[in-house]
Design goal:
With about 180 residues, this protein is an alpha+beta fold. It has one domain. It is about 30% helix and about 40% strand. Strands 1-3-7-4-2 form a five-stranded mixed beta sheet. A two-stranded antiparallel ribbon has the order 5-6. The radius of gyration is 26 Å and the shape is elongated. Keywords: Membrane, Transmembrane, Transmembrane helix.
Length: about 180
Amino acid sequence: MAFDTRREYSTFTYEMRCFIWIGLFAGLVCGTGCTAVLDKFSTNYYERNYSTRISVVELDPKNQPEPSVQKAQMRAHGERVKIHEDGGWEVLGSSEFNTSGSPRHNHLLNLARKLGSELVVHSREFDRSEQELVKRSEYQRGERITVNGTTVEMEGRWVDVIDVVTRTYHDFRVTFLRTGRE
């Protein structure tokens, strides 16, 4: 007879395993902070696509004040930056990219702090949506079938499943500024 992995015959139940995993995950999140964990595992689009206009010494982001973030429509982004430049602000650099991901706001703030930026002009605009067929394997559990008093146990198996994945792309443009230096 094969090893029986069903829940009702197991001494170490599915619920107990779930409880242990939830406890481990909660300990990880509480120990390091939820956003810190997500920030470490996600792509930093702002830093990856940053282009320098003025070279600056990188600062410790933990010791810097939080910059002001101004949201602007993409078509008015350049005008908004120009207004600030005319008002005495210096452009440190900018970051432009297109992604279907969700850039983390903490990444934006940390890069601004590293640069010593006091003001960030941020724009986001819808670009397109794309659909893609993604093939993946999924395990179907076995089942018991009783016919005329005879019980037959069917084995589990792997089957191919096709999912439709929709990706929505956005253009991002961010300009980092600081008050003018003399």
